[in-house]
Design brief:
Number of domains: 2
CATH class of the largest domain: Alpha Beta
Strand content: 25-35%
Order of helices and strands: EEEEHEEHEHEHHEEH
Number of helices: 6
Structural class: alpha+beta
CATH architecture of the largest domain: Alpha-Beta Complex
Distance between the termini: 47 Å
Number of strands: 10
CATH topology of the largest domain: Nucleoside Triphosphate Pyrophosphohydrolase
CATH superfamily of the largest domain: Nucleoside Triphosphate Pyrophosphohydrolase
Mean pLDDT: 88
Radius of gyration: 20 Å
Low-confidence stretches: none
Amino acid sequence: MNRYSKQTRLLLAIDCIIFGFDGNDIKLLLVKRSLEPEKGKWNLMGGFLRADENLKECANRVLKQLTGIEGVYLEQLRTFSKPDRDPVERTVSVSYFALIDINKYEKQLNHEYSAEWFLLAEKPKLIFDHDEMVKLAQKQLRYKASLHPILFELLPEKFTIPQLQGLYEGVYDTSFENRNFSRKVLSTGLLMKQKEKDKINSKKGAFFYKLDKKKYKANFQAFLNFIPNPDKFIM
């Protein structure tokens, strides 16, 4: 097989930023690096692209191999290509971010690689340029959440308004007035009220809701500008 002559060979890696919500807090999933340099330090889940797969296939493989998680929301973020970003060898990395409901996938988590959830405000310093990747993923998450219900990927099928509010407050690192938040989210017409109540996390019992996916597909504009002045929340 012919090859391009006089060209430098390099590695192509995938790094996954995995955000999860446990019903109270939004968190980041990290693993401990198993190779030198920086062995034993915290980093994002990653791996190298194989000759027989595309980028999305590689990202899904990395997620399943390192965490046991599959079939979740996954979106390409950005390519990181500084020549010295990896001290071992010239490596270009394509980053993806994933959104999951922690309670749904906790039992699937593969602990072989010391995978652990961290509060965003308490995450340890990461290796190489992984902190930059996380910061950009947070920015993208905030931007997209201000336009449509991407954060519902982090929630169980049935959720309460307080849970939804806690999620938005965690993502935007702010607080919303309870009644105003409830009024605005219900005014979208995209939530279906259920008969059941959450009597475990609420003294009075908060009603469960579901996202009306049919209405959302037909009228996703109802969620536009849900967050007031979203620009001030974007890093």
